[in-house]
Design brief:
It is built from nine helices and five strands, in the order H-H-H-H-E-H-E-H-E-E-H-E-H-H. The chain has a five-stranded parallel sheet with strand order 3-2-1-4-5. The chain has a single domain, classed as Vaccinia Virus protein VP39 (Rossmann fold). The chain is of the alpha/beta class. Helix 1 packs parallel to helix 6. The protein is globular, with a radius of gyration of 16 Å. Helices cover 39% and strands 16% of the residues.
């Protein structure tokens, strides 16, 4: 028999916002997870494309793996970057899709959105935009995107069914998800599920 452990979702979201606001404003801080341009290179990001990403975004990169290792994006594709953070993945993606495609990054942390927008302006791209929103309620029409990329975000969200339902809704027929995330191999204890620090780190 499984026991469902309730967590305070709003408290969790508040803590996640605080953590990633610090990643944005204090990128030199040592966090419980690796960050920065060197980390993205270690994960195998395409070096030439990453080199063009402004330092403002790259210094606050906090991904867990490389969604582009699942295949490059194609010219002309419309891409959703779920949990775009400071915009590193979005700004790599926009170089792949070219001027005929587009990238929309979604994040719930205002400080990260501001940093991503500043970097997009610095890079001079006009086909990338960043929207403050939560993954469980995306502000887009059905069948808006060819590809969803996401890096280290879905693991932070308790209602994964709602997230995947939204991704399915906004993907076009034949669309794909290139997801990099954290998984666990053993069940988490009830105490662990209630520990907000374990969710946010």
């Amino acid at each position: 028999m499984s026991v469902r452990v309730e967590i305070d979702v709003e408290a969790l979201k508040c803590e996640i916002r605080k953590t990633y606001a610090r990643v944005s404003s204090e990128p030199e801080t040592e966090f419980m997870f690796p960050t920065g341009r060197a980390w993205a290179l270690d994960l195998g990001y395409p070096a030439q494309l990453l080199a063009r990403v402004p330092d403002g975004s790259a210094e606050s990169f906090a991904g867990v793996a490389n969604p582009f290792s699942l295949g490059p994006l194609r010219q002309g594709e419309d891409v959703l970057d779920l949990g775009s953070g400071a915009g590193t993945d979005s700004l790599v993606a926009v170089q792949m899709v070219g001027t005929g495609g587009s990238v929309i990054g979604v994040d719930m942390t205002p400080e990260m959105i501001a940093k991503a927008r500043a970097s997009a302006n610095e890079l001079g791209v006009r086909n990338a935009e960043f929207v403050e929103s939560e993954a469980e309620r995306l502000p887009f029409a059905d069948e808006s995107f060819d590809v969803v990329i996401s890096n280290g975000v879905i693991d932070l969200i308790p209602d994964k069914d709602a997230v995947f339902a939204e991704l399915y809704r906004v993907l076009r027929p034949g669309g794909r998800i290139q997801l990099a995330d954290v998984t666990i191999q053993r069940p988490v204890s009830e105490e662990g599920r209630r520990n907000i620090d374990l969710w946010t780190g």
